[in-house]
Design goal:
It is a multi-pass membrane protein. The chain is an all-alpha fold. The protein has one domain. The protein is 73% helix and 0% strand. The protein has helices at residues 2-12, 16-19, 23-49, 56-79, 93-103, 105-119, 121-124. The longest helix has 27 residues, at 23-49. The N and C termini lie far apart (63 Å).
Length: 132
């Protein structure tokens, strides 16, 4: 059952945000559902088809949005006092780093995408429109 799996994850990695998300975290979940998830099939199409330079701007918007949300989540993991949480949160530095390692790929992949969109010459090239 999914609720049991969620409970096991939250207990094993001491992630109370999954069981009792703060309001700001809920806002990020809605952003993920309504902004980020719809981007995936569009991006998959563009990257699988290849040569789609139009994906540059949506990919930059997506990757900066996700990176911004992840900075807040990672800061919360590192600095929040979880001793007052209803569910067990990370207490030691090791536990915080383990939880951080779970979320870190969700920052690194968008940063790689952003770097690709900004630095890859294929996506940087701007086509000049012909004058009539």
């Amino acid at each position: 059952q999914l609720t049991d799996l969620l409970q096991q994850y939250a207990t094993a990695f001491r992630d109370p945000m999954m069981l009792q998300p703060p309001e700001w975290f809920k806002a990020f979940i809605y952003c993920e559902a309504f902004l980020q998830l719809p981007f995936f099939p569009v991006a998959a199409y563009a990257f699988l088809k290849g040569g789609c330079r139009w994906i540059r701007t949506p990919a930059i918007i997506y990757s900066t949005h996700v990176a911004t949300t992840l900075f807040a989540i990672l800061a919360h993991i590192l600095f929040h006092d979880f001793s007052k949480s209803e569910h067990a949160g990370p207490q030691s530095l090791r536990e915080r780093l383990v939880l951080l390692s779970i979320y870190l790929p969700y920052l690194l992949i968008p940063l790689l995408l952003l770097f690709t969109m900004l630095c890859n010459p294929h996506y940087k090239h701007v086509e000049k429109r012909k004058r009539k």
